[in-house]
Design goal:
Number of helices: 2
Radius of gyration: 22 Å
Order of helices and strands: HHEEEEE
Helix content: 25-40%
Structural class: alpha+beta
């Protein structure tokens, strides 16, 4: 599996080749498709590398207790039901649980990554 730098280097080489040879038509389409395929493969292979979890808080509350089962202390971003980002006091209970406290009760979503 290529590293991000290897993918970048391959793109750079292919574009330099295109510029030097003035590749057009079918050859250009094939080159671009190769680069897209390489990006998709890299993305698919690395999706499991970083887990995430979306918590849906349907009932308004001033304290959200979230069991995410990510096995880490993830970054947390909270949005109210209107989609506005909200800042809360985040306390990591352990690597699979977090408690977020707010000054007012509301419902929304928390994205943990």
């Amino acid at each position: 599996m290529p590293t991000p730098q290897e993918v970048k280097n391959k793109y750079t080489e292919r574009f330099a080749e295109n510029h030097a040879r003035k590749i057009i038509g079918q050859d250009l389409q094939e080159m671009v498709q190769d680069m897209v395929d390489m990006s998709v493969e890299y993305s698919n292979n690395n999706q499991a590398a970083d887990k995430n979890y979306v918590h849906d808080q349907g009932t308004p509350a001033t304290e959200w207790n979230i069991e995410h089962k990510l096995g880490k202390k993830p970054s947390v971003v909270v949005y109210d039901s209107a989609g506005t980002e909200v800042i809360g006091d985040i306390k990591y209970i352990d690597d699979d649980n977090v408690r977020i406290s707010f000054s007012a009760a509301f419902s929304g979503k928390a994205t943990l990554n």
